[in-house]
């Protein structure tokens, strides 16, 4: 759309196109690190919702791009900068939403709830593709009448629609109470909480998700307000002041991950996410290659027809791949376990990438669509609450680093060595990802806080 608004249908400058594509992912790396550490240091309640406020502000600034007042290149720079700010907010949501969900879930349903959370990315892609088609249909007569510059309104409306769910959930995020699990685990190392005591609190927040009656909700709110107003009575001679505990947080973080048994898990989640996103975003940020192969690249017809073909191709890919893929995980995650699903996912992705790479120029359209569609949680569950958001943020940031590499290198590498060779590189990343998954423990039914408490107790006995 920006091609028609800014460059009369010609291609965007390659450098600026890469910046606009990579901007959100660059911001995500920053957001995942900063919000992850902030959530562990200040608490979930103090941070949750702030990332959504940043998303809302950056979205408004993005759709306010003064394309009529700036040069074409200047308009792209504006959009790229605000997409980077938007990425900071989106990146912050990764560790925040995953941590908050994990801390309010039964062990036996934790994986399912996390899978539901991330499945909404697939629904978002589907709704985005549908919205683009609908808005384009509304602009059809105007654009086919010769005024292709009006396409400027299409992308602004489509992006602006994301403000509806953002504003719709902002109040709930800002008023969400701190999880009991987070409060209890902050005492580990400061108080001599027994392992059995912590186990008994494993599902302490499940009641907060059970809104069966208004009465129970009101009683809960009243008890929370009383608890907030009444200072807790520390156990005799064992509780550290809050400020001292906060100051010790970073020391505890580095001490925890200085042990190889913990570091190898962090390395596993970081490397797996990095390798996955090289392949995942390498394909998805360059869907024009795929759309060209299945006949929806928008290379022929009027400007409106070209754009509508691209939107239709995006809808097909999303409907066939993303949404079914997420729900296959939702339905099987508690039966098969996270480790086995992740290994299977990498190997299946590698299989279909190999088919695409080997038969890139000979596959029929139907075969190509099926292979690409089939191409399409771990950190939140494997780390203790005390370090969960930071470790999840670091893992997600590693993934976005892979996405940035793909966004910046795909086009130039494709021109030098060909698209099939790029797909073989992605195949290698998926095989390596399956291998690094074996650094990780199975987390089904595993409570990392109990394990951490046991380790602290064992260390205190020596």
TrEMBL record:
Task: Write down the PROSITE patterns for this protein, in alphabetical order.
Answer: MFS, SUGAR_TRANSPORT_1, SUGAR_TRANSPORT_2
Task: Cite the record's Basic and acidic residues compositional bias ranges.
Answer: 193-204
Q: Name one GO molecular function term.
A: transmembrane transporter activity
SUPFAM superfamilies hit by this protein: MFS general substrate transporter
Q: Name one GO cellular component term.
A: membrane
List residues of the Major facilitator superfamily (MFS) profile domain: 1-445
Q: Spell out the Gene3D superfamilies in the cross-references.
A: MFS general substrate transporter like domains
Which InterPro entries did the record assign?
MFS_dom, MFS_sugar_transport-like, MFS_trans_sf, Sugar_transporter_CS
UniProt keywords (A-Z) are:
Membrane, Transmembrane, Transmembrane helix
The topology of this chain with respect to the membrane is: Multi-pass membrane protein
Q: Where in the cell is it found?
A: Membrane
Location of the region described as Disordered in the Swiss-Prot/TrEMBL record: 193-241
Query: Membrane-spanning regions, if any?
Result: 46-63, 75-92, 113-137, 153-171, 265-283, 310-333, 345-375, 387-410, 422-440
Q: Per the record, where are the segments of Polar residues compositional bias? A: 223-236
Q: What is this protein called?
A: Major facilitator superfamily (MFS) profile domain-containing protein
Originating organism: Hermanssonia centrifuga
